[in-house]
Design goal:
339 residues, alpha/beta, 10-stranded mixed sheet, two-stranded antiparallel ribbon, 12 strands, 39% helix, globular, binds nicotinamide-adenine-dinucleotide
Length: 339
């Protein structure tokens, strides 16, 4: 008997709808060829475009729909930058559902230009605090303060997640911080990682200041296996790593908690490409594969990853970011057909 999985699907803003519909096409293809896979897609609204109608970018009905689902596939959204405007939907959902681990695989793909061949590492970013706490004040005109909240509890939790991942991989973990300047906050983070390291003696551990890590990602990206870091550093380093391994159009991310997961591309809503059917949908397609893997559908997940690899290796369908003129739809169709 097929066990149905309820998937909350949020299309988002900008290029969000185009890439998310492409991922849905691929999920439908994999469902057709996978015995016992039954996905029930529940569409919800969220993002910048909701603000005018609902007064919020995350309507209550969407939160209720997410609560009824087993996982969420989320398109990118536009976040307004004026003080007092609704905060990022991604940040709100990460905190609301305690999705404390942001997992961003950084892999080179066949026939895709990358800085070096055969790269394979993962950035694990703390996802609930740090400079994303959203606590900011203007103390006096022209004098602003943002609170970088780092707790031992959240640092221990993300370190444990990262060490467990490293144990399943090449058993090497690099923790990234700026402890020479942020002595208290990153002191707490460093101490937590060192405490967790004692429970995982098979993992080789080293550390880097974030500026040195940014350099090392360009100079010797092949030396990394698992990188664990705080929220903003992880955000910045994972865009850099995406470019090192082939570009934002390919980079997928998972937001994982103890009882729920939300899956999205690393990239944002790229407003200037909205509606042009030209961006690469592979990032969110790979995010949908991570979602199936998280739901225990490993066979279906690997069918998607294999189809993506095959389409890229053949090199016949390439979107603009990969150097040719295939459309978002062409890429989705090629991957779905391969499945
Ligand atoms: P972005 O990631 O949207 O785009 C940066 C550039 O990356 C684009 O101009 C484009 O050249 C390239 N790019 C992105 N996605 C691509 C794809 N699928 N295929 C090919 N090329 C691609 O970053 P931004 O311009 O800084 O942000 C735009 C908006 O997205 C902002 O409002 C930001 O807040 C939001 N954002 C949302 C999320 C999220 O929803 N999780 C994440 C990042 C940014």
């Amino acid at each position: 008997m097929k066990m149905q999985k309820n998937i909350a699907v949020i299309l988002g803003d900008g290029i969000g709808p185009e890439v998310t519909e492409a991922a849905v096409k691929v999920l439908e293809a994999v469902q057709e060829v996978t015995a016992n896979l039954k996905l029930n897609l529940l569409y919800g609204e969220a993002g910048y475009h909701c603000i005018a109608e609902h007064g919020t970018n995350l309507p209550e009905e969407t939160i209720a729909l997410i609560k009824r689902s087993d996982a969420c596939l989320k398109g990118p959204m536009t976040t307004p930058e004026t003080p007092g405007a609704p905060v990022s939907v991604a940040v709100t959902l990460r905190r609301m559902f305690n999705l404390y681990a942001n997992v961003r695989p950084c892999r080179s793909f066949p026939s895709v230009e990358a800085l070096k061949p055969n790269l394979d590492f993962v950035i694990v970013r703390e996802n609930t605090e740090g400079l994303y706490s959203g606590v900011e004040y203007e103390l006096a005109p022209g004098v602003g303060v943002a609170l970088r909240i780092i707790t031992r509890e959240a640092s221990l939790r993300i370190a444990e997640f990262a060490f467990k991942l490293a144990e399943k991989r090449r058993k090497h973990l690099t923790y990234v911080h700026k402890g020479n300047i942020l002595r208290i906050t990153d002191g707490i983070f460093k101490d937590a990682v060192k405490a967790v390291a004692k429970k995982h003696p098979s993992v080789e551990v080293d550390d880097l200041h974030v500026d040195a890590a940014a350099m090392q990602l360009i100079k010797k990206p092949e030396t990394f296996d698992v990188i664990v870091t705080t929220n903003l550093f992880g955000d910045i380093l994972s865009d850099e790593a995406a470019q090192v391994t082939g570009g934002l159009g390919l980079a997928a991310g998972a937001n994982i908690g103890d009882s729920y997961g939300m899956f999205e591309p690393v990239h944002g809503s790229a407003p200037k490409y909205t509606g042009q059917n030209r961006v690469n949908p592979i990032a969110i397609i790979m995010a949908s594969a991570m979602m199936l893997d998280h739901l225990g559908e490993k066979n279906a997940a690997s069918k998607i990853a294999k189809a993506v690899t095959e389409v890229l290796s053949e090199g016949r369908v390439k979107t603009a970011d990969l150097g040719d003129s295939a459309t978002t739809t062409d890429m989705a169709n090629a991957i779905a057909a391969k499945i």
